[in-house]
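JOB MANIFEST
job_type = single_chain_structure
chain_count = 1
residues = 510
[input]
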Amino acid sequence: MSGDQEGTGSRSPGGDGRPQKGRLGCAHLEMEMTKRACTHADSAADCRNYDGLVHRNGGDSPEVSVPVSLHSAAGKRAAQMEGDDLYRLRDRKFLLEDKKRLCALALGAALLGILLMILHTEMCPFFYKPGTNIALIVNCSISLSTGCLLVFIIAFHYKDIRLFIIDQNQVDWRIAMTSHRVFVITLELLACAIHPVGTYWEVGLHGNSSFSPPLCDSNHRNTALADLELLLSVLMFLRLYLVHRAVLLHSKVLLSASYRSIGSLNNINFTFRFVLKVLMNKYPARTLLVFILLFWLTASWMLTLCERQTPGSTDHMETALWLIAITFLTVGYGDVAPNTRCGKSVCLFTGVMGVACTAMLVAVVTKKLALNKGEKHVHFFMLDIQISKGIRHAAANVLRECWLLHRANLTKGTRGAHRRHQRCLLEAIRVFRHLRLKQRKLRDYVSEMVDLPKMQMIMCDLSANWNNSYRELEQRILSMEQKLEELSRCFQETSKLLSQVLRHRNQEIR
């Protein structure tokens, strides 16, 4: 024993030493891997344990043991990764709630600004007298709502970028700022920043409060300022694009976990188009009615605002409502016509939207009037019965006319009666063929309609037959196994009996 120890201790790196060199190489590799693991460890205690272990082993020992603390550190890191995933899900939920809240606030600020703009325009003839500051106060309120709207939009996109960072596993926020996103954010800010500013210009030009807003006076001396005020007032309706975002973020389709899970399995993107299709499928009449009423009122007021600068027959709300309705329905009586370029543009856009809504209305009515599956089966079944009766009557008429023509030939009747019977026979044959063709077309259509359910029933029957055959095969295999076991037991008993008999015979012979 001592000789073995001395022999083992007498091996030096300068001698043969191959086993020791191999163990030393493995030891150094394990130490290097352990050091790398230690650099990524979460606690400094593991690194201190590792350093103490290296110093105790002397750095060149052939036996290196991996510290238990590294295994615990790996478990801690796995638990920490699971905790991070849970925190990411929690943060994602909070960010979605913040996005919904900010979108609702932005839509409220946009509608408030539009409402103040309408009040600002409609109050001109009654309250905006020279020497009053009501126009400046209302315009300041519009500007304040516009500033709040811009802040809400910036906050919304900030939450959207944070959500992108969480979804992409904590990447740099600059990666999210693509050219498309920057363009969309800039376009939204420009569209929402539009509001009437003519009152400020009048205050700057005159330096006192003895003025009237540009939209209040049709014969205003600064026509360019009035046109700009009109354009900015009309363009404020671009803020209504926030409606589609609010509908998307507050829809039950997006909030339902089952919808999202099934949609992710089928690679469905939950966009506003998908939500609109769902709404048109569930509530088609209600959705179209709400859209048409809102569009009708908005376009009528915009036409009234456009025609107010040139007093005429279309500068009243009731006339504008009539003109927009007639243009929307693409009737165009011609009794009323817009006079300004702005009014003509509004009527042109109304005509285009009328054509689109008419197409959607036709599709909705067609869907409502279409028969469902059960009604189609009943209807086609009754048609098939009626056509079968007609075919039987037509076949009977063919036989009757053949018999009458044969009897006319036997009795050698007049030529007029012979021709009459031939004509009736040909007509009966034509009716019979027409009914047969009609029945074939009906059955082809019905077979196309029930093709998929029929195939499904056939596949279900096949699968049921396969299951039954498989069960029968299993039962037969089990019975065969039982019979084999019985045969093997019988063979064993027979062999035992034969051995006993032979042993007994041998003893008798001896």
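[summary]
The first helix runs from residue 2 to 9.
The two ends are 64 Å apart (CA to CA).
exit_status = 0
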